[in-house]
Amino acid sequence: MKFPGQRNQKHYFPVEARDPETLEPQIQPKRTHICGIAQTLVDIEARVDDELITRHNLVKGNSVLINDDAANALYRELKERELIVEEHAGGTIGNTLHNFATLSNERAVLFAVMERQIEIGSYAYKYLSNTSSKVDVSYLQPVDGPIGRCFTLITPCGERSFAISKGAMDKLEPSAIRPDLVREAGALVFASYLMRSADGDNIDQAALVAMAEAKANKVPVVLTLGTRFLIEQDPQFWRDFIAEHVTVLAMNEEEAEALTGHRDPIKACEAALEWCDLVLCTVGPEGLYTAGYSDRLQLRETEYELRNGSVPAFNRYEFSRPMRREDCAEPVKIYSHIAPYLGGPLAILNTNGAGDGALAALLHDMAANRYHKLNVPGSSKHAYDALCYSSFSQICKYANRVSYEVLIQHSPRLSRALPEREDSLEEAYWER
């Protein structure tokens, strides 16, 4: 497994090399993976005028569900007028699993549906051909009908409007979930959209089956909120749901406000920690935050400048590693923040998927922790139970860097792993 960031040589684990004393090959390393439950979608990005938005009965700046006939009519007009900029595999969890696999070079198991008959050039073909070979699609459930389509319509003012044709993407059955794969995973990840499926669609029940298996085996359950419009319809439902099922919560500042009622990201993260153990909150041009718990005995003070916000000196212990609150004898809330990498790109080609990229980086770090524990169980890093391999601060840096890579390309899916990053002050701290 590739580890996030540049590490000192002693942090690598050459378990496939020959033992210097016996000159005998050591055993192969134990592998790890993550699991994701996804709605299979193809993203279609187009630049349009306001008149087209109105004529197709869409709502500017909002997400609207449309039926297959409306989707076909919209797609036909976009093609005829040559308004389409990009067509690529999408979906929040599909993007996240692909990016995780690209970053880590490890397996990501996809639980989702796929068209039974796939033709070259079809939406299903485009989805599979633009998904990393490290994403395991062996367990896709075949369905009769199209996968979903998500139209991202960008007007001259820069506003993005979304039209989503569900197709058969929510037809996943609980029987498609493989409990053995879930219980051995480094994490189980899914999006909020799954829990609001229509009558007759069972993807929400499939998600609940997977969550129950994960919880029974202490596999971290990771939820990404998806859109504020869904959360603000019933924020109390989501608070209760997170408290019952979720270990790690990923959201942006709008979703955070809808969930918690706090516009300030630190206050929103602080509130969310009453329901979960670790929070990743992206805040657009302000960068991103991580927040969570660590035991008082395991706290590590930052060597960066202390920063004040709604929580004074909120980053004081950002060199600490995230833990579950239940695993802490004396839990302490920890926060870290980072501004956009290099101040942000010179030109943003795509904002879709930047948050998914950040989440993929966090999942990589969580899986790296499990991989290391499987292969080097006697390491001092595992003297206590941590959720992640790295600290709050280091996770911020890594997630921030991945988000930058997504912003400078049209596709929400990475086409390559990141280059090595520079050494950091924090890594020097851990070398002492």
From TrEMBL:
Keyword flag ATP-binding: yes
Gene3D superfamilies in alphabetical order: 3.40.1190.20
Requisite cofactors: Mg(2+)
This protein's pathway: Purine metabolism; GMP biosynthesis via salvage pathway; Purine metabolism; IMP biosynthesis via salvage pathway; IMP from inosine: step 1/1
Catalytic activity: inosine + ATP = IMP + ADP + H(+); guanosine + ATP = GMP + ADP + H(+)
Residues bound to GMP: 91-95, 196
Pfam families in UniProt: PfkB
Keywords on record: ATP-binding, Kinase, Magnesium, Nucleotide-binding, Purine salvage, Transferase
Recorded superkingdom: Bacteria
UniProt GO MF annotations: ATP binding; guanosine kinase activity; inosine kinase activity
EC code: 2.7.1.73
Listed SUPFAM superfamilies: Ribokinase-like
Protein's job: Catalyzes the phosphorylation of guanosine and inosine to GMP and IMP, respectively.
Protein name, as recorded: Guanosine-inosine kinase
Gene: gsk
